[in-house]
Amino acid sequence: MTPTVRYPIFPQPPPRQPVSSTDDATPLYAAARRKLDDYFAPRVNATFEVYRFRQAKQLENESLDAFYARLRQLVKHCAFVDVDTEIKNQILLSTTATRLTPVCHAARP
To answer: From which domain of life does this come (predicted)?
Structure first.
C-alpha cells in the first residue's frame, strides 16, 4: 500500500502583501503595462523598412496623390534624415507619370 501524502490545509489564506512599483510616482499597473508593451512591441528592422520603401512603385491606376500618401506611410519606419527629399526621389524613380519626370529633372534644387 502506498503511503498517502498529506498537505497542510490553511484555515485562512495567508495575508496579502502590498505590491509596489519601483517608481513611487508611477502606479503599478502603468509600470507593468509599459514593461509588457516594451517586451511585446514589434521591433522595427530599419534596413527592411528602407527596402520596402525603395520597392514601392506607383500602381497602374493609382493617382499621384495616393502614391504620395502610400510613400508617407512607408517612410514612417525609415530613419531618413530628410524625408521629403527621399519621397521626392522615390516618386521620380518609380512614377508612371511620364510628364512629371522631365519637369523634375529640369528643376533646380
So the answer is: Eukaryota
Residue among 84, 81, 85, 79 nearest 46 (CA): 79
Q: Which residue has the cell 496579502?
A: 16
Q: How far is the C-alpha of 63 from the C-alpha of 97, rounded, in Å?
A: 9
Domain limits for position 101: 46-106
- How does pLDDT run across 20-79, given as a tens digit for each residue? 555 555 678 888 888 888 888 878 888 999 999 999 999 989 888 999 999 999 999 888
Number of domains within the chain: 1
* CA pseudo-torsion sign 24, 25, 30, 34: negative
* pTM of the entire predicted model: 0.58
